[in-house]
Amino acid sequence: MLNSLSGRFLVLTVLFVMLAEVLIFVPSIARFREDYLLGHLERAQIASLALLADDMIDADLEEELLLNAGVFNVVLRRDEARQLVLSAPMPGQVHKTFDLRDASAAVLIRDAMVRLIDTEPRVIRVIGNPLRDAGLLIEVTMLTAELRAAMIDYGLRILWLSAVISVVTATLLFFAVRRLLVKPIKGVVHQMQRYAAAPEDAHRIITPTASVRELREAETALQSLEQQLTQALKQKERLAQLGGAVARVSHDLRNILTSAQLFTDRIEMSEDPSVKRMAPKLVNSITRAVNLCESTLAFGKAEEPAPSLTLFNLSQLVEDVLDAERLAIGDHDLSLSSDVPASLTVRADPEQLYRMVSNLVRNARQAIVGSGKPGEISVSGRADDNGWVIRVSDTGPGLPSKAKEHLFQPFQGGVRKGGAGLGLAIVAELARGHGGLLMLDEDVTEGTVFEIRLPMGSVA
Fold first, then answer.
1. Bridge partners for 450 per DSSP
2. How far apart are CA 263 and CA 430, in angstroms?
3. Fewer beta carbons within 10 Å, N or C terminal of the chain?
């Protein structure tokens, strides 16, 4: 019970109501004490007026008047003259005098608390103003035992009333909280459990129904989260199906390309100068296609295969990439250039690095051709203290901000219409496999610049 939200709310409500009642109890008991003393002053004044009306009151009647007033003696000051009107033997010395004429609230509360704590019967003197301007002041002496008993009785009644109010208030709030908060929260939890059982089922996505604004905001946020998760799960399922299809296609394509590779061996023996010049590039292209199919099959099993690191000339690899792209440019006004030192060698997987550079250059070419404007693509390379840096820059339209949000995520970071968004994801994964990374240069204001950074040490 106490571990539930409604149970703890019930306990806290009782405690807070009782605390509020205690704050009310203290001034209330002080006010009761003041009224009690003023009542005795009033009765004492009435008794003194009876004596003033008739000086010949006998001792028994005077004793009866004091007994009814609950005091031992009455002093009335009239016309600046202090007069002992009624008197009776006192059981002891006066312990303390209390003047009610100008007492502040703090003083009254303090005196009331002291009286409750002090259990000894005392004789006190009380001074006040007579009713209806019947004199300058009136003072009486009285015992504190009856006063304290009356204060305790009044306090107990207040405490019992406070307890009843607390229980009733807490019970009403308990059921109100269960109806307005706990029940809707349990409904949300039930919806979450129901959705978790089959997150791919869009029919199980929560529909916001709460009337409480905060709960409705929580349901709306949960609905958005579940929609995104369901969409992601469906996308992953489609990717898994696509992966299986790609693996089958890659398997058959590898066989076809292997056959084509056999025919290129005969083409190389041709005496035609043009054929001799183009045949090596054709052989290299087909070889890379075969390797790509094999890599795709390996990726379908787990991930990109670990790079086979060798030292090779970067300039020649970049020229091969640019030569292949020049064939795809056609009549478009687009220039390709390389700024890689002829002696620069890198330690990487040649096939994977070729794919990295080729993907970046191809993306840049497609962006410039798609814009319909002339442009330029440049590939540069350098070595520094931290490793090798391969920089691919273009003068194209640049990347929109929406594409930058999911730049390296498969099927989400595509910029070109109809593109799958796989190129940059593949480059980023291959770079990570080398222990490096792919970076977008955010400081460039025109065009797009990507950097492949490869470490000189071992693969991470």
1. 392, 440
2. 31
3. N
Residue from 365, 355, 375, 328 nearest 426 by CA: 355
Predicted TM-score (pTM) of the model is: 0.43
What is residue 448's three-state secondary structure? strand
Same-domain status, 259 and 224: yes
Overall domain count for the chain: 3
Report d(CA 437, CA 405) in Å as an integer. 17
Question: Quick one: DSSP state of residue 398?
Answer: -
Q: Note whether residue 13 is domain-resident.
A: yes
Tokens of 48: 């003194």
- Token pair 């035992």 is at which residue? 145
Percent of the chain with pLDDT over 90: 14
Residue that wins the pLDDT comparison between 78 and 43:
43
Cβ pair 257, 289 in contact under 8 A? yes
**Exposed (0-12), middle (13-18) or buried (19+): which is 430, by Cβ within 10 Å?**
buried
Answer for the pair 192, 222: CB distance below 8 angstroms, yes or no: yes
The CA distance from 236 to 374, in Å, is 39
With residue 408 as reference, give the H or E element that holds it. none
Which tens digits make up the pLDDT trace of 260-316? 655 666 666 666 777 666 677 677 777 777 666 666 555 555 456 778 899 999 999
pLDDT digits (tens, 9 = 90+) for 203-240: 888 888 877 788 888 888 988 888 888 888 877 777 77
What domain range is 273 assigned to?
200-303
- Interacting residues of 403 by C-beta distance below 8 A, sequence separation 6+: 413, 414, 415
Q: How far apart are CA 391 and CA 164, in angstroms?
A: 80
Average pLDDT (49-76) is 70
Walk across the sheet containing 437-440 and list its strands.
Answer: 334-339, 375-383, 387-394, 448-455, 437-440
Q: Which two tokens stand for residue 242?
A: 């696509």
Query: Is residue 17 scored above 50 in pLDDT?
Result: yes
For residue 352, give every residue at least 6 positions away whose Cβ sits within 8 Å of its Cβ, in sequence order, or none. Answer: 304, 307, 430, 433, 434
- Residues 292, 360, single domain; the answer is no
Torsion 283-289-292-296 (CA) sign: negative
| Residue of 271, 31, 47 lying closest to 155 (CA atoms) | 31
Instruction: Name the DSSP letter for residue 271.
Output: -
212 and 343 housed in the same domain: no
The two three-digit tokens of residue 42, written as one number: 């009033």
Residue 128 and residue 264 in one domain: no
Judged by DSSP in three states, 458 sits in coil
| Same domain? 17 vs 160 | yes
